[in-house]
Design goal:
Helix content: 25-40%
Number of domains: 1
Order of helices and strands: HEEEEHHEE
Largest sheet: 6 strands, mixed
Structural class: alpha+beta
Oligomer: single chain
Distance between the termini: 77 Å
Number of helices: 3
């Protein structure tokens, strides 16, 4: 009887641990790299090649919690009194790596890192 109770308790604990682990998996972040094709104050769309000749396009929401990393970004931010918009730092044609997570029905960009500035003139 004790052995059955112990086995049952162990099975329940294992099940609870697995469910807790899968709930945390929904909050994990992912990364994607591409070229900026569209940019507004609230969203960024990137595109690129997905291998085998396939192309992709993904849109991410951005907000005040989105961290933007780029060469010269701190100088730009300081010149504007510490308040800059993503559109002041990132531009169409820039190559970026976005760290994101699901937030409701949308992908939220937690970090946008500019890895290469566009050669296009503004």
């Amino acid at each position: 009887m004790r052995r059955t109770l112990f086995t049952l308790s162990l099975a329940v604990l294992t099940l609870v641990a697995l469910q807790a682990g899968s709930a945390g998996a929904a909050e994990k972040t992912a990364h994607v790299t591409g070229t900026v094709t569209s940019l507004t104050m609230t969203s960024i769309t990137i595109g690129g090649g997905a291998g085998g000749g396939a192309k992709f396009s993904r849109t991410f929401s951005v907000d005040s919690d989105t961290k933007v990393i780029a060469k010269g970004a701190s100088t730009t931010s300081a010149a504007m009194g510490g308040h800059t918009a993503i559109t002041d730092i990132v531009a169409n044609g820039d190559r970026v790596t976005i760290t994101y997570h699901r937030m409701g029905q949308m992908n939220h960009a937690a970090e946008v890192r500019v890895t290469a500035k566009s050669m296009m003139k503004k």
